[in-house]
Amino acid sequence: MTTASSRTNPTASPEAAAGCNAKSTSIGARGVSKSFVSGVVRVQVLQQLSIALCAGELTLISGPSGCGKSTLLSLLSGLQQPDAGQITALGQDLGRLNKRDLEHFRLQHTGFVFQGFNLFPALTALEQVQLPLGYLGLSGAVSLERAMRALDEVGMAQRAQSRPAELSGGEKQRVAIARALAKQPELLFADEPTSALDADNGQRVIDILHQIARSHGTTVLCVSHDPRLVRHADRVLNMEDGSICNDWRPSTGPSGLPRRPATSPETTA
Fold first, then answer.
1. Integer Cα distance of 255 and 250 in angstroms
2. pTM for the full predicted model
3. How far is 5 from 169, CA to CA, in rounded Å?
């Protein structure tokens, strides 16, 4: 079993704990802390957290509400800055980038998928996917080809001319994934991508995210309460009170023992 916890073993190398080598480590955090002010009270959200993520893997962050999952995702993606500690992504220290350089880094290297889809009502699925490609300076022909290829990869090519009002929740989320995928990002961040979907559509989205990690070598980091994601993840980070309390791979299970067949209550709990 891979065990890495900022709470139980703060001196362990995050890369060694993750099973990454220098070349395969895509994102790293060392001694990261983050707090927010609520009224007159300062709330500590993350506490001296260290972690390394490997390229080509789907990593799931799970835990109760308020444990710091989404905050960690925001920090690792460069959307927020830590109060202390260092975050590196693709070999760059994000804390050393100014605002403009950080925005350029996110544009060039990252994709985002959110619970609420964030689609524009007036645009077709194809236009939704093409839109961010324009900011990359791609020609119309290249952006069209990339957008159609991304829609086809998520099974939405036949709905390219449909607008959000004509799509189901699962279809909207697949368009949102295609929009992120078309940028060909090395890093893909997903925040509760299946929580608004039924079982079938949620399963399809999970399969797509896992396939993106496998076929594109993308680092996929997903925050979710959805237990269905666990058996599809390459790695699971369980968080509690701003720390990683358990870091494991579903091939072994959190105890380090081989997982029982799917019919066992232990695997379906």
1. 10
2. 0.85
3. 36
